[in-house]
Each structure stands twice: as C-alpha cells, then as structure tokens.
C-alpha cells in the first residue's frame, strides 16, 4: 500500500536554493573542460558557439516541458513519479530503478573520483591516494545531507555562488582584454582523443552532455516550498543562467586564445586562460573554484537521487521498503536511502569505471526524458482547460516538439556511436523487471 510522508518532509528549499541546485548541479567540471573538445568537433569558433547556443535551447525546451508536467505533479520522485502516473507502474518503476541502481550512484562515484584526481594534482599528493580523497569528499557531502536539509540547501547556495565568481571573471576578461576574433577562427590541428571536424551535430551532442543535470530538482518536490510555482521558475531561470555562463565562457576563451591553441590545450584551456589573465595564483584559485564547483555538483546529486529511492520505497517498489521509506526523526531526511546510494557509488569507484557507466546511462536517461516530454501532450489532453496547471509553457506545442527532436537526435547518435553501451544500459534497466515482479508476488502472497 502506498504511504505518504510528504507532510513530514522538511520544505527547506526556497526559490534561491532551488535555483542554486539547478545551476550548481549542471555546472560542474564540464564548463571548464569541454572547450577544446566542442571546438575540435565543430571545426571553427562560430560553429562551436552556435553549438553551445543550440544545446542550451534544446535543454531549455526540455526544461520547460518537464516543468509544466512537474507543476501538476508536485511530489517527491521526479520522472519516476511522472512516468508512473503517465504510463503505469512498470514504466515508472524502471525509470526509478535506472536512477537508483545505475545512474545516480555512477554519477556520484564519477564526480567523487574526479574530485580526488584534481585534489591530489593541485596539492602535489600521490596519485594513488586520489580515490580516498574522492571518497572523503563524498562522505562529507553525505553527512551534510543527513542533517536538516536547510544545511544542504545553504551549502548549495554557497558553492554555486563561489563557482559563478570565476565564471564571471573569465567572461569579463575575454570580452574586454582578449585580442583574438571570437568568430571565424578555423581549427587546423588534430585534437587528442577527439575526432576533429565532426561538424555542428556532433558538437551539439557534446554540449548536451554538459547541460545535463537540470531534472534533478524535480526529484525533491516534496522538500520545495510552494513547488507548483518554485519548480518551474527554478528550472527555467536556472537553465537560462547556465546558457549565459556556457556561451559567455566559450566566447571569452575564443577571444583570449587562438582556436588551434584551445584544441591543443584541451582540458587545460580555462586554466591557461586564467593564468594568462590573473597570473600563477589566478590559475591556482581557478583550480580551487573547480573543486568547489565539483562539490556543489556532488551535493546536488546526493540531495536529489536518494529521494527517488525514498519515493519508490513509499510505494513499496523497492526491497526493504520499510527501511528506505523512513525519515530521520531529527533531520526529516531519508538517511537510509542516502547512505545506500552513496555506498553503491563508492563500490563503483573501486570495482568499475564510473565515467564509462555514466556514458552508458545517457541513452536510457534521454529515453525516459522523452517519455516525460511526450507526457506534456497527454497532460494537455487530460486537462485542456489547464485547471491544474500552475505553469504553462509558451509556444506550445513547438517547445516540446523541439525537445523531443533533440532527444531523438541524442538517442540515434548513441545507437550509431556506442551500440555496446546502449545494449549494456538496456540490460541493466531491464534487470529491474524481475525485481518488480518479485515485489508484486510477495505483496500478493501476504
């Protein structure tokens, strides 16, 4: 039987902390390290800038569509809950299973592992110890999320504010002190590990991965103040801020450095840009800002994904549901769900390649995104007068159509470029089906 603890959850996320969660979760290390690869695949700076803009538009249209659906279903669980209400228990369960067992822990593990690598590099520590610093960072963030959620909300606001400062500095430096033409520079060198000259489509695909993460806010609707209004506002304005940041930093980089130099530098582009602008210590400060940026992104994942497990347990859709549907009496947070997913993420850091797993999850993630996008048409048909809609996207139906076409592009590209990863991700998700059947059988037996 479905239980409801929504009234017990602490609604500690207001508009600013919700906005910070969207911005902070999207902007991780991708903004600082994707410049070279996007430019290499685009072939010239003009095409690369349009790729960042196009990726942002596709993300914004997806965000508006999901925000409209979410404003009508303001419950914890995000796409797990939306898909269940739109398409039934089995589809919703598989969406939740994917996030709880696969995608969420893999993201936590990958982000933590990267934090450890950058941390030991910055402070000259042995590379073999990086995994332990990554685990330490993950555990610290987990502790913050195990106490009342106004602490994790405040932490998200602080880390997001800090990460926006170097972004603003890089944009201003590029705009006013750069000496290169930002538009029209062609790439003539080969990038390491990147297929140069892949064209506009491949470049857009690269930016879409950098824009991912905005949907995590929907997972914590039960902890948002006035979610019917706050959720759509935070998603839409958060994505707009990220678009400005991505396009602004890219334009600043093209003004500051030659196109071939950017491709050759690759992941070190923004570090070199900061060092040129602000000297040796400027580069070091940027590295610290990147570490803080990663912590903010990690916090967003730890805040968001365990709420999906909590919502599934509320419905009896997970083993040991009584344990994982409990809230801490003191903090009103689902601590058992949080620590289980963190434990899976740590295991992935030791026994798998989390980065590879997150790549595998892209296909399935966008598949479930598409189901929610199609859901906008279902919800409009169910409620043509909009009596339950607190947010209506502009330019309907073109907004969800653009979002669906963009998602289809991602799906087709994944099938063509990484068929093995698609098969593996489908297999992992379908493993959840026999688990669901067992849970249904055990409930019926009782």
Classify the secondary structure makeup into a structural class.
Answer: mainly alpha
Shape: globular
Query: What is the level-2 CATH architecture name?
Result: Up-down Bundle
CATH topology name, in short, is Amino acid/polyamine transporter I
Mean of residue pLDDT values: 86
Distance between the first and last residues' Cα: 12 Å
DSSP strand count: 0
Report the sheet-strand fraction.
under 5%
Oligomer: single chain
Give an overview of the whole structure:
This protein is mainly α and 446 residues long. The protein has one domain: Amino acid/polyamine transporter I (Up-down Bundle). Helix content is 74%, strand content 0%. The protein has 18 helices and no strands. The protein has helices at 15-26, 30-33, 35-42, 45-72, 79-87, 89-122, 130-145, 149-177, 200-211, 227-256, 259-265, 269-314, 321-324, 335-351, 354-382, 398-417, 419-430, 432-445. Helix 15 packs antiparallel against helix 16 (398-417). The longest helix has 46 residues, at 269-314. The termini are close together. The model has no long low-confidence stretch (mean pLDDT 86). Its main location: membrane. The chain crosses the membrane at residues 12-33, 49-70, 91-124, 130-148, 160-179, 199-222, 234-254, 278-298, 336-354, 360-379, 391-410, 422-439. It is a multi-pass membrane protein. InterPro entries: AA/rel_permease1, AminoAcid_Transporter. Keywords: Membrane, Transmembrane, Transmembrane helix.
């Amino acid at each position: 039987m479905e239980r409801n603890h929504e009234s017990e959850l602490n609604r500690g996320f207001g508009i600013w902390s919700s906005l910070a969660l969207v911005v902070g979760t999207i902007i991780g290390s991708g903004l600082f390290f994707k410049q070279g690869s996007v430019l290499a695949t685009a072939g010239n700076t003009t095409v690369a800038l349009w790729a960042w803009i196009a990726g942002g538009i596709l993300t914004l249209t997806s965000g508006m569509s999901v925000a409209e659906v979410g404003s009508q279903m303001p419950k914890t669980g995000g796409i797990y809950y939306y898909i269940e209400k739109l398409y039934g228990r089995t589809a919703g369960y598989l969406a939740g299973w994917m996030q709880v067992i696969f995608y969420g822990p893999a993201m936590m593990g990958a982000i933590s592992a990267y934090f450890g690598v950058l941390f030991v590099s910055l402070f000259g520590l042995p590379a073999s110890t990086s995994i332990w610093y990554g685990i330490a960072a993950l555990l610290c963030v987990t502790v913050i999320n195990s106490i009342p959620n106004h602490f994790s909300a405040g932490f998200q606001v602080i880390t997001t504010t800090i990460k926006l400062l170097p972004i603003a500095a890089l944009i201003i430096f590029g705009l006013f002190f750069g000496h290169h033409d930002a538009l029209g520079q062609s790439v003539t060198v080969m990038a390491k590990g990147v297929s140069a000259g892949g064209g506009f489509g491949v470049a857009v695909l690269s930016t879409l991965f950098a824009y991912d993460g905005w949907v995590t806010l929907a997972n914590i609707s039960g902890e948002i103040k006035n979610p019917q209004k706050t959720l759509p506002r935070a998603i839409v304005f958060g994505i707009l801020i990220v678009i400005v940041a991505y396009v602004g930093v890219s334009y600043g980089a093209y003004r500051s450095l030659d196109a071939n130099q950017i491709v050759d530098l690759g992941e070190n582009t923004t570090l070199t840009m900061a060092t040129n602008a602000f000297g040796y210590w400027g580069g070091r400060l940027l590295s610290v800002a990147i570490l803080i940026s990663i912590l903010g992104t990690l916090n967003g994942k730890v805040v968001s994904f365990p709420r999906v497990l909590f919502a599934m347990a509320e419905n009896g859709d997970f083993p040991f549901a009584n344990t994982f549907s409990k809230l801490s009496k003191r903090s009103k947070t689902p601590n058992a769900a949080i620590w289980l997913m963190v434990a899976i993420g740590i295991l992935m850091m030791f026994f798998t390649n989390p980065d590879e797993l997150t790549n595998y999850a892209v296909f399935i993630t966008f598949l479930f995104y598409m189901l929610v996008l199609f859901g906008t048409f279902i919800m409009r048909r169910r409620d043509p007068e909009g009596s339950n809609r607190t947010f209506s996207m502009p330019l309907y139906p073109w907004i969800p159509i653009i979002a669906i076409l963009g998602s289809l592009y991602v799906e087709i590209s994944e099938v063509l470029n990484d068929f093995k990863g698609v098969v593996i991700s489908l297999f992992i998700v379908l493993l959840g089906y026999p688990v669901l059947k067992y849970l249904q059988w055990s409930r019926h037996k009782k």
